[in-house]
TrEMBL record:
ATP binds at P84, I85, S86, R87, G88, L89, G90, S91, S92, S93, A94. Keywords: Amino-acid biosynthesis, ATP-binding, Cytoplasm, Kinase, Nucleotide-binding, Threonine biosynthesis, Transferase. It comes from the Bacteria. GO terms for molecular function: ATP binding; homoserine kinase activity. This is Homoserine kinase. It comes from Sulfurovum riftiae.
Length: 293
């Protein structure tokens, strides 16, 4: 079985734990029946013993394969990782969604994306990465009980993501601890109103107003202080024509949305100014996770 799952950028500024979209940077996994458990890993994290063991994938795969098939079998797993790890591009969501998709496929259970998404919520409790990882496109998502309720909008092919991937990681768990437990009404309204406005802009393809809509007062600046160069990354991207420039998920990556015609110029200005960071120009993804036997 072959599984392909995209990277995702969550929050998009004010849409904390709610908004996210998928980009065309994919992890691929091949799963084959085998006499013994065996794993191979290429790409991101291949030199990291913890990632090579991939206990996150294996524990979710095994738990769900057993639940669905009633059996414990051995497999060979071949991982090709392209999503940078712990950089805010949804690497953990990609592992969760791939492991669930693999378990359903290998157990021979009919594949239903809504069910994969609801199962993924058991492993990642905010829906803004898992939803686009499953569905592709731009997504608004909320959680009620143990279910994700979400709406997807396909992204047009004339837009690009210019992503800036710093050389240092920020773990989501740590990046959530720097946020306050309580927020003032003014900062809550500031972000709430922009998240709603931004959703309307995405739904109506009104890209030129995103600069205002993508500002945030809930999490972004508080987290960027952990890596102050990010303020300059944002300034540089906006100066060179990005439609919006936001911390991707919990960081450290910065996500910039741009018209295709401007994307390379923005990327080059970022490469020139931040030679220590990786800069990718990526298409947006509308497919989400895909599988084939
Ligand atoms: N390809 C992978 N193989 C094995 N484990 C992985 C892989 N990708 C991610 N992980 C696991 O997920 C953890 C990173 O999750 P974390 O939520 O901190 O980052 P992220 O998902 O990249 O960022 P964000 O949620 O902000 O987008 C890693 O420490 C590792 O345990
Ligand atoms: N909404 C999440 C995304 C990262 O997983 C956060 O900002 O912590």
């Amino acid at each position: 079985m072959f599984i392909s799952v995209p990277a995702t950028s969550a929050n998009l500024g004010p849409g904390f734990d709610t908004l996210g979209l998928a980009v065309d940077l994919r992890n691929e996994i091949i799963i084959k029946p085998s006499k013994f458990l065996s794993l191979s890993t290429h790409g991101e994290g291949a030199d990291n013993p913890k990632i090579k063991k991939n206990s996150l994938f294996l524990s979710i795969f095994n738990e769900n394969y057993k639940r669905l098939s009633g059996r414990m079998d051995n497999f060979r797993f071949e991982f090709t990782n392209r999503i940078p790890i712990s950089r805010g591009l949804g690497s953990s969501s990609a592992v969760i969604v791939a492991a669930l998709s693999g378990a359903y496929g290998m157990a021979g259970v009919k594949y239903n994306k809504r069910e994969i998404l609801n199962q993924a919520l058991r492993y990642e409790h905010h829906p803004d990465n898992i939803t686009p990882a499953v569905m592709g496109g731009f997504n608004v998502a909320c959680v009620e009980g143990d279910r994700v309720y979400s709406k997807k909008r396909r992204m047009p092919d004339y837009l690009r993501a210019v992503v800036v991937v710093p050389n240092r990681t920020i773990s989501t768990a740590r990046s959530r601890t720097v946020l306050p437990k309580m927020y003032r009404k003014e900062e809550t309204v500031y972000s709430l109103s922009r998240a709603a406005y931004m959703t309307a802009l995405f739904m109506s393809e009104s890209w030129d107003l995103l600069r205002i809509a993508s500002k945030d007062k809930l999490h972004q600046a508080r987290r960027m202080k952990m890596m102050p160069e990010l303020f300059d990354v944002q300034k540089t991207a906006l100066k060179h024509g990005a439609l919006m420039s936001t911390l991707s998920g919990s960081g450290s990556t910065f996500f910039n949305l741009a018209y295709e015609k401007d994307a390379e110029k923005i990327a080059q200005s970022l490469r020139d100014r931040f030679p220590q960071f990786r800069v990718f120009v990526l298409a947006l993804d509308n497919n989400g996770v895909t599988t084939r036997n």
